[in-house]
Design a protein that fits this description.
The protein is an alpha/beta fold and about 350 residues long. It has helices spanning about 35-40, 45-70, 85-105, 115-120, 165-175, 180-190, 215-230, 235-265, 280-290, 310-320; strands at about 5-10, 15-20, 25-35, 75-85, 110, 130-135, 140-150, 150-160, 270, 295. It has a 5-stranded mixed sheet, sandwiched between helices. Helix 5 (about 165-175) runs parallel beside helix 7 and helix 5 (about 165-175) runs antiparallel to helix 8 (about 235-265).
């Protein structure tokens, strides 16, 4: 039987739907971003995110089916993000997915958001082979994972406080940049000279591959306050601080990633999550992996951020592995949503 999976992603502020076929690959994917909605507040407002998902999700499902030239009867199952994420946003996707599954008499598959990011690189034409080290780096998560195979994950290290993407956004706000701050800060950094400031590289002198970015963010805040005491921040100082901050984050991510690769004897590194689109990070990791005879892989930019394609594809992998019954009579149609969910809980 041809397996065709509808994927739904609503973990934060993107409403995303995609359809993936085992035989024909990705058939369609649609994303609606809530950035304009949240920009006026300088960050994601969970209640507004949930309400917007309610308005946009079902029309987006219809649009994705139309783009793929399919009807509900053509689908094998529905995969949806069950966590981690904003609980209200997750519940919108989970309840709609489960309701549609009941109506269409197909299984509903709860998917771990970070596992889907791990699998996103496999959507590319030349995907990496298992095993590999994965750097998952986004607004909500920063972790290094040893991926020995599908459902075989070991978390090697993770942030003890702020995620790298969160630190980018908070530092951008300190510098007076609009939301979302990460891309704005990266653009400003291109005009700066980070050598002007001696910013810390957190935890590099400690063994292991855990991260910490709150101290770096605080260091920038102190320099901003000291400068503001003498007058308004000028553009050159803001650019220099942006460049110094970005250099510190990238340097930390690269050196910890290479440490994980070497300590675990891997030759391949994948980078996924929103911060994976950062050009400086990509360039530095490419050079660092080449220096040790390894390779680095990324999803295309549209699959670095939250998307339905990675959910549909990961759902197909689980469905094909027999993790959910094909017969609806045996399927679990409970609504699954978890704000927190350890990645290692989904291992085989």
């Amino acid at each position: 039987m041809q397996k065709t999976i509808l994927g739904i992603e609503t973990s934060c502020d993107e409403t995303a739907v995609a359809i993936y076929s085992a035989e024909r690959g990705l058939l369609a994917h649609e994303v609606y971003s809530q950035i304009p909605l949240h920009a006026q507040y300088g960050g994601v407002v969970p209640e507004l995110a949930s309400r917007d998902h309610i308005q946009k999700l079902l029309p987006l499902v219809d649009a994705t089916l139309a783009a793929a030239g399919l009807e509900a009867a053509d689908l094998t199952a529905i995969a949806y993000t069950a966590g981690p994420g904003l609980i209200g946003a997750l519940l919108v996707g989970a309840t709609l997915a489960t309701g549609l599954a009941m109506a269409w008499r197909i299984p509903a598959l709860p998917i771990h958001h970070m596992e889907a990011h791990l699998m996103a690189t496999l959507l590319e034409d030349e995907p990496p082979e298992f095993p590999f080290i994965a750097l998952l780096v986004s607004g909500g998560h920063t972790m290094l994972v040893d991926v020995q195979g599908f459902r075989r994950y070991e978390i090697l290290g993770q942030t003890l406080d702020d995620a790298a993407g969160e630190a980018f956004d908070k530092t951008a706000k300190l510098l007076g940049l609009p939301y979302p701050g990460g891309p704005e800060l990266a653009a400003l950094a291109e005009r700066g000279n980070g050598d002007r400031f001696n910013l810390p590289r957190p935890m590099l002198q400690r063994p292991g591959v855990d991260f910490s970015f709150s101290g770096l963010k605080t260091a920038v805040m102190l320099k901003v306050r000291a400068a503001e005491a003498e007058g308004p921040l000028d553009e050159a100082l803001r650019a220099d601080l942006a460049d110094g901050f970005q250099e510190a984050v990238v340097d930390t991510l690269v050196r910890k990633s290479i440490r994980a690769v070497r300590q675990n004897g891997r030759q391949r590194l994948i980078v996924a999550g929103g911060v994976a689109a950062n050009r400086l990070l990509r360039n530095r990791l490419h050079v660092a992996m080449a220096d040790i005879g390894g390779e680095v892989f990324y999803p295309r930019s549209e699959f670095c951020t939250d998307n339905g394609a990675m959910i549909a594809f990961t759902g197909l992998l689980h469905f094909s592995a027999g993790d959910w019954p094909e017969d609806l009579a045996d399927a679990d149609l409970s609504v699954h949503a978890r704000a927190r969910w350890n990645l290692q809980e989904v291992t085989a």
